[in-house]
Write a structure and sequence with these properties.
- The complex is a heterodimer of chains A (366) and B (660).
- Chain A has one domain: Cytochrome-c3 Hydrogenase, chain B.
- Helices cover 48% and strands 13% of the residues of chain A.
- Chain A has a three-stranded antiparallel β-sheet with strand order 1-2-3.
- The longest helix of chain A has 29 residues.
- Chain A starts with 6 loop residues before the first strand and ends with a helix.
- In chain B, the strands form six sheets. In chain B, strands 4-3-2-5-16 form a five-stranded parallel β-sheet. Chain B has a five-stranded parallel β-sheet with strand order 7-14-8-9-10. A three-stranded antiparallel β-sheet of chain B has the order 11-12-13, with no helix packed on it.
- The relative contact order of chain B is 0.14.
- Classes of the chains: A alpha+beta (366), B alpha/beta (660).
- At the A-B interface, helix 2 and helix 5 of A face helix 2 of B.
């Protein structure tokens, strides 16, 4: 008679495939996972608390450091929330620029998720290709705002500076270049037999679980729920653009990866439409005071970030600093699905499933 | 057979697909990533190290005047700066493009007379404009974005007072350099525009003669501006300086009556400039207009300003909502009227008078009846007893043109025994009769918009004759333009070549009011001392008093010297930095920057500081490699930062520490 015993295994916080500093305590029965408990907090900086001691403008560079893979999105959500509180109207050109930047950011961020997702399953090539393409987007960003990662580009009432002359042409070239590449990556990764074997039917997230855990973004849509804030509660000028929401069927890892690829295609469409219809005019609303003092009140403004519903809840007491700022970060909610999704799978699948949830720990811990 | 093949295919499906992809790539071009041989250029907007370009007082101030004092080159220089987006907003917003930042820099250093000379080059009457200007510059002052705009108007006034104290009639250097030219120029009218043109032409050496209808020079400034806003000795001193350049002013000569334009040409005047302005008050075609007790604004103001006795009743009604109407109402209050009522078509916020004027007149107890139009003047035994008014529903039509609509049923009666009409002015152009100068059907001059030449060669026009109702500084600007045209005409050059239009005021938007609650008191602008209502109501004493020397220097130091690329130590970068890594200090007297320190170890390259630097002296350079590999360069060399002035204790201490 062989005596079996459950084994407790610590994965992380220093582990190359946890996409940051995540520690998962796994209880194993042989190769099979009985229980998985995520432990977070290794990257906690107290940004929400720091924000209470900064003026509203000084908080913008702080939001860059939340989800550092898609900083533009954080800028966007924060700026929208304060604008709603202040009642500032944004010029049309500034809104278009914001949408172009946000969608390019979505592509850049999904490229990382897609590439590292492949890497987690052992597909090295796609990972390198994706980072090569992302580099082109970063060059576009650098051209516009001078930074490659922490952009600090959005301002209340617009953006900090207009596009340089060469931007429109470079962006068009990028779209032209990117479209066939996406088809190629679909061939390389999603249609790959090995990758399909590793991901199809692995990490199935049921609709019911996805809803009850508050999942959002590609994780939710991969489970077959058609929900996108850009369509449901359009912010900025998203109601003017024509795009579709891809939805998965089974809710497994493959579906989530596919949704991301399809979203990149839709984002390219949005960027192209925005470039075509880019109006002329100012990029910053006139009359926004230097010292922002919103009237007392509160606001919650969610946007569809790369990872899902990103919302800023801001309470103002009428002074120059926010009384309270709370970030509803999608990665945190999505990460809480780990115990549900991983349970019952083999230990080799943990990395693949985790990669498909695409957490960024700057945002989880804040 | 087919089934067998299919089974075989299914088993090795992925291998075949993979082989297909492999062959596709073999036949297509190689897709390996090409690393560039050369280093790739970095974007100009790259946010690297912070760098400061210069410090206040380190080198002489970059003044707009560097272009030279010639009106033509100056304007070209201003347009060049505008194109580069480095034109200070105050200079751009001023119709005459006065070099305000240059003035402020020199006042801050105590060089008042030099500042005066800079200002008078573009604004020939600094003392006058320092009192009556409507200062479009102050609304656009960049300081107004941070707290409150610099008191540019009062600094003009201050330097004019300083010049008056020293009795400096003219720049001696300027007079020494004067060339003599034979050509004679006649200017009709000695208002601001005529004086400005005369000044420019006299500087070039032409023999200028000004013909003035009235017994005293100054045009509308002498007739129309009340004494409580502009004491006459100030005006006369400013005019004296024009005379000092050799300009002859012949008062009491009315061209058109005593002399004609033909006579002037016979007397040898090569060019003639019409600068007569608008000096005939318009009347209204309503019943009762010829009753006893109905007056016009310009004759009334002229009588009041020249100290004549004016017969008005105790209860005065002023029709009109412009600045002249306000002047009339306030003068009437001072001449003896107990009650003054203004009736105007416009609603309160639409009134063309400047808001501060309206405010002051309300303080003096003047009633304003807004949105009412005159219907008829009521009379009894030939005397005025009141004014019947009807409601005005809209003043402007959809295109924004003046086309008032009235509600005839809704009327009321305003009681009063005198009615003064201040509804606008027209020009008296009877002097053009018998010449080739043509007027249009509305009896306005026909002239070229660029060169200001009329239909007769050698005759030019400037001032309100060309612009319509305008301001003193606007008239001065057209005077300068006309002077360029005349000097080109006399030299036989092309009038049009390289002429630039006036800068559109909409290029620079007015900054909204800032919430001044949290701002320290020393950062705010000083408030001028004003006479109280009781002190000023029954006399013509000047209402606002000017700055004292100490206040003026402090105020000039508040100027941010926009786009000068020299740090003025305004500390706005330090206030913006989210990481508090910038430290800026001025010396105690505020005249130079004592300390500027950036802790690059703390900096997170957000760029907020350089974005809001008003002088553009703090920039983010594309030197990213320095930031990574040469740590010793991260800290600024303090010796470089400090001004290389002798006897600086701070600098000496640093040295000691180094060698200790």
């Amino acid at each position: 008679m062989i005596r079996t015993e459950e084994l407790q295994l610590n994965m992380g916080p220093q582990h190359p495939s946890t996409h940051g500093v995540l520690r998962i305590v796994l209880r194993l029965d042989g190769e099979v996972i009985v229980e998985a408990i995520p432990h977070i907090g290794y990257l906690h900086r107290g940004i929400e608390k720091i924000a209470e001691n900064r003026t509203y403008t000084q908080v913008i560079p702080l939001t860059d450091r939340l989800d550092y893979v898609s900083s533009m999105m954080n800028n966007f959500a924060y700026v929208l929330a304060v604008e709603e509180l202040m009642g500032i109207e944004v010029p049309e050109r500034a809104s278009f620029i914001r949408i172009i930047m946000a969608e390019l950011q979505r592509i850049a961020s999904h490229l990382i998720a897609f590439g590292t997702g492949g890497l987690d399953a052992g597909a090295m090539t796609v990972f390198l290709y994706c980072f090569r393409e992302r580099e082109r987007i970063l060059e576009l960003f650098e051209m516009v705002c001078g930074a490659r990662l922490t952009y600090n580009y959005f301002r209340f009432g617009g953006v900090s500076q207009d596009f340089p002359k060469e931007f429109a042409e470079s962006a068009r070239n990028f779209i032209k270049y990117m479209r066939p590449k996406l088809d190629e990556y679909e061939d390389l990764l999603l249609n790959n037999y090995i990758f399909q074997k590793r991901t199809k039917g692995v990490g199935v997230l049921k609709k019911k679980d996805a809803l009850s855990y508050g999942a959002s973004g590609p994780v939710l849509r991969g489970s077959g729920i058609k929900r996108d804030i850009r369509k449901e509660k359009p912010y900025s000028l998203y109601d003017r653009f024509d795009f579709e929401i891809p939805v998965g069927k089974n809710g497994d890892t493959w579906d989530r990866t596919w949704v991301r690829l399809e979203e990149m295609r839709q984002s390219l469409n949005i960027v192209e439409q925005a470039l075509d219809g880019l109006p002329s005019g100012k990029v910053k609303a006139w009359g926004v005071p230097r010292m922002i003092k919103p009237p007392p009140g509160e606001v919650y403004r969610p946007i569809e970030s790369t990872r899902g519903e990103l919302g800023f809840y801001i309470v103002s007491d009428g002074s120059a600093r926010p009384y309270r700022m709370k970030v509803r970060s999608p990665a945190f909610s999505n990460l809480s699905l780990i115990p549900v999704v991983i349970k019952g799978h083999q230990i080799a699948d943990v990395v693949v499933i985790l990669g498909s949830l695409d957490p960024v720990f700057g945002e989880v811990d804040r | 057979m087919l089934k067998k093949f299919w089974k075989f295919f299914e088993a090795f499906q992925s291998i075949f697909i993979g082989m297909g992809i492999t062959f596709k790539y073999l036949t297509s071009k190689a897709v390996t990533f090409q690393y560039p041989d050369q280093k790739r250029p970095i974007s100009l907007r790259w946010r690297g190290l912070l760098a400061l370009k210069g410090f206040m007082g380190e080198t002489p101030h970059q003044l707009l005047r560097e272009s030279g004092a010639e009106p033509q080159t100056y304007k070209a220089y201003v347009h060049k700066r505008l194109k580069e987006d480095t034109l200070p907003h105050c200079t751009g917003a001023c119709p005459a493009n006065v070099d305000v930042s240059g003035q402020n820099a020199l006042v801050a250093e105590g060089k008042y007379l030099e500042a005066f000379e800079i200002v008078q080059e573009r604004n020939i009457l600094p003392g006058v404009l320092g009192r009556i200007c409507h200062h479009p510059c102050e609304g656009r002052c960049r300081r107004g974005y941070y707290d409150e705009p610099v008191s540019i108007k009062f600094l003009h006034r201050f330097i004019a007072e300083e010049a008056r104290k020293t009795r400096r009639k003219n720049n001696p250097k300027l007079k020494r350099e004067l060339k003599k030219r034979e050509e004679k120029v006649a200017i009709i009218g000695s208002g601001p525009s005529g004086l400005a043109a005369a000044f420019d032409l006299a500087k070039e050496g032409y023999q200028v003669t000004i013909f003035e209808k009235q017994k005293f020079p100054g045009g509308m400034l002498a007739i129309g501006v009340p004494l409580y806003r502009l004491p006459r000795d100030v005006l006369l001193f400013d005019i004296e300086r024009v005379k000092g350049l050799g300009v002859e002013i012949r008062t009491g000569v009315e061209v058109g009556k005593d002399l004609t334009i033909k006579d002037l040409k016979k007397q040898g005047f090569k060019a003639i400039l019409i600068a007569v302005g608008l000096q005939v008050s318009r009347s209204l075609p309503i019943p009762g207009i010829d009753l006893d007790g109905v007056l016009l604004a310009v004759p009334f103001l002229k009588a009041v300003n020249s100290g004549e006795k004016v017969k008005i009743g105790k209860d005065v009604i002023v029709i009109g909502g412009g600045n002249v109407a306000v002047d009339v109402a306030r003068c009437a209050r001072r001449v003896g009227a107990e009650k003054v009522k203004m009736v105007c078509l416009e609603a309160r916020h639409e009134m063309p008078a400047f808001p501060w004027e309206i405010e002051e007149s309300l303080e003096e107890g003047i009633e304003i009846h807004c949105s009412w139009g005159p219907k008829q003047i009521l009379g009894k035994d030939g005397r005025v007893v009141g004014l019947e008014v009807k409601e005005c529903t809209a003043v402007f039509d959809a295109q924004g043109r003046f086309a008032p609509t009235f509600c005839e049923e809704h009327t009321k009666v305003v009681e009063g025994d005198t009615v003064i009409l201040a509804i606008g002015q027209a020009s008296d152009l009877s002097l053009v009769e018998g010449t080739e100068i043509k007027l249009n059907e509305r009896r306005q001059l026909i002239f070229d918009k660029v060169t200001l030449e009329t239909t007769e060669t050698g005759v030019f026009a400037c001032g309100e004759v060309t612009t319509g109702p305008s301001t003193a500084i606007g008239s001065i600007a057209t005077g300068h333009e006309a002077a360029i045209s005349i000097s080109r005409f006399l030299r036989g050059e092309d009038l049009r070549k390289g002429r630039l239009p006036a800068i559109n005021l909409e290029e620079f938007e007015e900054y909204p009011q800032v919430d001044l609650e949290d701002i320290e008191e020393e950062r705010l602008r000083p408030r001028p001392v004003k006479l109280s209502v009781e002190e000023r109501i029954d006399n013509f004493k000047e209402i606002e008093l000017g700055f004292k020397e100490k206040v003026a220097v402090k105020e000039a130091l508040r100027c941010l010297r926009c786009y000068s690329e020299k740090c003025v130590g305004c500390t706005f970068c330090a206030r913006t930095c989210p990481d508090f890594c910038i430290e800026v200090e001025r010396t105690r007297d505020g005249k130079r920057v004592a300390k500027y320190q950036i802790e690059m170890g703390k900096c997170m390259f957000c760029g907020l500081c350089s974005e809001q630097c008003p002088t553009r002296s703090l920039v983010m350079t594309p030197q990213h490699e320095l930031a990574f590999y040469q740590k010793e360069l991260l800290e600024y060399d303090k010796e470089k930062l400090l001004r290389s002035e002798k006897g600086y204790a701070f600098k000496e201490k640093e040295k000691e520490r180094k060698y200790a």
